[in-house]
Design brief:
Largest sheet: 6 strands, parallel
Structural class: alpha/beta
Shape: elongated
Radius of gyration: 33 Å
Distance between the termini: 69 Å
Number of helices: 36
Strand order of the largest sheet: 9-6-10-11-13-12
């Protein structure tokens, strides 16, 4: 006797009153039949609640049976022409396969994926044909986060639609010459096509959740009508292992994001093998999402299973379905009908009787729900109409569906990109592709005539939904004016005598001015991650409010204070809590609103610099890919400015990370006037000129006096360096001191020591962007290399230093590598020394930290004197005198090693 029959027998044996039990079950059945499942659910919840309040132990389970959430009698059949849709899908499958295989026969190292789209084709076809709107006057358009590895199938569809040429298909993953197609969804490389990058895996689900919330934000604030739009995100079941995939599902439910639909393609396989070989990934995900408050719709079995399930009066089939693990299910689809009969239905005699009249081919044709257009349509319709909660569709499919023995349901499916002639013939026959035998070796693409009924149907369906997808808007239609630099007068002028402020305070003043601007004030999006008070930004709470769809249902504890915590349905601040990845995802949604919503938004995401670039570096790189426009403000930046917080908080490398993103414009300003000049020009470039760049600006919480802007300094600030103060004209020896951030002030102090103690004049240069200096130098160097006969270009920093004399000493609050970027562009006959904060941070005062990392005024002075000695300008004994005078410990360990 099987385990299932044993369980039924045990249940009956433990039931002291089987008649009463049956009466309760009959009553529930009657309620379902006459009043519907919602009424039955309500009654069950009331009974469970009563039982618990009376002390009964009712174990909680967020799982349902391993069957379709939508029962057969409530299924909604697809209204489409299924014959045409099946042929279109088959042609797309073929062309996607041909694209990848042809690319790898020509060059075996290009890679590509066939199996993911093969399992997704029905779902994508259903969405494109019946659900997903393109942007029109009446509809802002749905937003699609498409599973990255399915890109060949999207290209195959666009090819049939006439949006992609055969030449482009032939150049899949060959982009350098400008004729190819990107490996995955990359807006940077295909700016008119892909809406969103969805790789690295896990980033798509995370970004989609915050994108859905941002649509609610725009609607609540009256900036754009978004209530009829949906965000659809497709991801794999293996991808759900990424913490980012699941990390924000609680927020989605809490924010009632009923405009969000997550579709998890449960083909049970990752790259290496099963997702949950010993378990059931669909049940696991159901528990997670239902527990978080989502509308969960499982699409497990195709329509052919409905008749069998209707015969399953004793629940034996459902129990076997539940007890069978995913590793077994994968094996079934890698074998044949006879194997399934023996190893699945053979688990119980009653099941063998149930399929006795079915042939092995009939059993093989028992499809999974993800390959049934009716089941998919019903699930999509449920998601489209659901209100009040986000929806996740857990859709069971077969990895590599249609690839046969070459890859279908096999562990190698994900990596399979080279099919032999037999496999190609098998695929042609399985999907009835009209290509003759003598042409098979060429693996030709198939595209019927434009007047073929299937092609007309394809275009008609997209016309009914407003146009073709995916498509991307490269520029916003609206034109916004940017306030002039004079708007920020408060930080452009010198601080009053005796007054000291930080660059963070300067930034807040700039931001406050922008919020009041009549043209762009409403488009500013301040984004914070529970650090408003750290940055002195809590005054914005009352001024513009924190966005919350429910408003404020309580009286805040600090209501009697000027800067009380105010939440508002139309609030302007996005407060993400202790959540850097969420803050970055909100920033990306706002920074690409010009494209997604035809509304230019200007996000300022302010965070601890150590917990920004380092922690969400993959999202920062993605921001470059998605052509984001906005400001990332790295607060408490530098290795020595955040005294007392220690190793994990002190940032000495965020600018190194920022330098790796080509369209990130990084600055490390020292003074308020530099902050204002940089932000105003960033607004000009990103808002007025609609340039696809974004800014990373570091700001500090250290207070000091600010000299104010002098006429003519603007150009140097933006290019990356300008002369801040000049040393004495008449001096026997001279050095050039370069600095940025708060350490520039140590260079200023060192210039005074050099002059007063050693008679050495020092010119002090403020370098708000060493990275921009390096990029300019590299650009000149490259141009000169490939244009040897033309007039040779001189890097900007080189031109500045050539007009000076003496050694050059650059000091920053970051790793030496930061200032080493410009070494190649220093005059060849001059010494260039770099001081930086390599090593781990630690807690102490700023004075002690700068001594420890050897970037204070005394080390700068000694480095300058040593450089003069190396050039033979002074005696080396003077260096020793300086070391003794300033109390420098010659036996002190290198900070990198301790």
């Amino acid at each position: 006797m099987s385990a299932q029959l044993d369980q039924l027998t045990a249940q009956a044996a433990n039931d002291p009153d089987t008649i009463e039990t049956q009466e309760w079950l009959d009553a529930l059945e009657a309620v379902i039949e006459h009043e519907g499942t919602e009424r039955a659910h309500y009654l069950m919840e009331r009974m469970v609640d009563l039982a618990r309040r009376r002390g009964a132990h009712v174990p909680f389970s967020s799982n349902t049976a391993y069957v379709n959430t939508i029962p057969a009698h409530l299924n909604v059949n697809s209204p489409g022409n299924l014959e045409y849709e099946e042929r279109l899908r088959s042609w797309m499958r073929w062309n996607a396969m041909a694209m990848v295989v042809k690319a790898n026969r020509a060059d075996g190292d290009l890679g590509g994926h066939i199996s993911s789209f093969a399992s997704l084709a029905n779902m994508l076809g259903t969405g494109f044909n019946h659900f997903w709107h393109a942007p029109t006057e009446d509809h802002g358009g749905d937003l699609l986060y498409i599973q990255g590895h399915s890109s060949p199938g999207i290209y195959a569809r666009a090819f049939l639609e006439g949006r992609i040429t055969e030449e482009q298909l032939l150049n899949f993953r060959r982009e350098v010459d400008g004729k190819g197609l990107s490996s995955y969804p990359h807006p940077k490389l295909m700016p008119d096509f892909w809406q969103f990058p969805t790789v690295s895996m896990g980033l798509g689900p995370l970004m989609a959740i915050y994108q859905a919330r941002f649509l609610k934000y725009l609607h609540a604030r009256g900036i754009a009508k978004t209530d009829n739009r949906k965000v659809w995100v497709f991801c794999g079941d293996g991808e759900m292992d990424e913490p980012e995939s699941m990390g924000a599902i609680g927020m989605a439910a809490r924010e009632r994001l009923d405009n969000l639909v997550m579709v998890v393609n449960c083909n049970l396989q990752r790259l290496d093998g099963p997702v949950r070989g010993n378990g059931k990934i669909i049940q696991e995900l159901e528990a997670d999402f239902r527990g978080a408050g989502w509308n969960v719709v499982k699409v497990i079995w195709g329509s052919q299973w409905d008749a069998l399930l209707s015969k399953d009066k004793d629940g034996i089939l459902q129990r076997v379905m539940m007890e069978t693990v995913d590793g077994e299910y994968q094996n079934y689809k890698a074998k044949d009908g006879a194997y399934v009969r023996k190893h699945f239905f053979g688990k119980h005699p009653e099941l063998l009787k149930m399929v006795a009249n079915m042939s092995d081919d009939d059993i093989w044709r028992l499809t999974r729900g993800g390959h049934d257009p009716h089941k998919i349509y019903a699930a999509f319709k449920n998601a489209q109409e659901n209100k009040g909660t986000p929806t996740v569709l857990l859709v069971k499919t077969v990895k590599g569906f249609g690839m046969g023995k070459s890859g279908e349901a096999r562990n190698t499916a994900h990596q399979t990109k080279k099919l032999d002639d037999a496999a190609i013939r098998e695929m042609r026959d399985r999907f009835n592709i009209p290509i003759p035998d003598d042409k098979l070796a060429e693996i030709p693409f198939f595209k019927p005539a434009d007047d073929a009924p299937e092609m007309q149907y394809l275009h008609e369906r997209r016309k009914a939904l407003g146009g073709y997808l995916p498509q991307r808007r490269a520029k916003a239609d609206e034109a916004l004016s940017v306030p002039p630099l004079e708007t920020f007068k408060a930080v452009l002028e010198p601080t009053a005598e005796g007054r000291e402020i930080s660059t963070t305070q300067s930034y807040v003043r700039v931001l406050t001015s922008l919020l009041k601007d009549p043209s762009i004030g409403q488009r500013i999006v301040p984004i914070l991650v529970d650090e408003s008070r750290t940055f002195g930004m809590e005054g914005l709470f009352r001024q513009i409010g924190i966005f919350n769809q429910q408003g404020q249902l309580y009286e805040p504890v600090d209501r009697d204070q000027v800067m009380y915590y105010r939440e508002d349905k139309a609030g302007q601040i996005l407060q993400e809590g202790i959540n850097e990845a969420g803050g970055m995802s909100s920033w990306i949604a706002a920074a690409t609103s010009y494209s997604s919503n035809n509304r230019t938004m200007i996000p300022f995401y302010t965070f601890y610099s150590m917990f920004g670039m380092q922690r969400v570096g993959d999202l920062v790189w993605l921001a470059g890919d998605i052509r984001a426009r906005g400001f990332l403000m790295g607060g408490t930046a530098g290795r020595t400015t955040l005294n007392g917080e220690g190793l994990q908080h002190e940032d000495g490398h965020s600018h190194i990370i920022a330098a790796t993103v080509p369209n990130c414009i990084p600055y490390d300003p020292t003074f308020g006037h530099e902050v204002a000049v940089i932000i105003q020009d960033g607004l000009r470039r990103m808002v007025q000129e609609q340039e696809d760049v974004f800014y990373y600006i570091t700001i500090m919480n250290e207070n000091y006096a600010h000299p104010g802007l002098k006429a003519g300094q603007e150009e140097g600030i933006l290019k990356g360096m300008y002369l801040l103060q000049e040393g004495q004209k008449e001096a026997a020896n001279r050095v050039q001191l370069i600095g940025c951030g708060t350490i520039l002030r140590e260079s200023i102090a060192a210039s005074e020591l050099l002059q007063n103690d050693w008679g050495v004049a020092a010119d002090v240069w403020s370098a708000p962007s060493l990275t921009l200096l390096a990029r300019d130098g590299q650009d000149c160097e490259r141009w000169n290399m490939v244009n040897p006969d033309a007039e040779q270009r001189v890097p900007y920093v080189t031109s500045l230093m050539q007009a000076t004399s003496g050694p050059i000493v650059a000091t920053t609050d970051y790793m030496r590598l930061f200032a080493e970027q410009i070494r190649a562009f220093m005059p060849k006959d001059r010494s260039y020394k770099v001081l930086g904060t390599d090593g781990f941070g630690r807690s102490d005062s700023r004075v002690k930290l700068r001594e420890f990392f050897e970037v204070n005024r005394y080390y700068i002075t000694v480095a300058s004197l040593r450089a003069l000695a190396d050039e033979g300008k002074i005696d080396r004994a003077i260096v020793s005198q300086a070391i003794q005078k300033y109390g420098i410990d010659q036996n002190k360990p290198n900070p990198v090693t301790v």
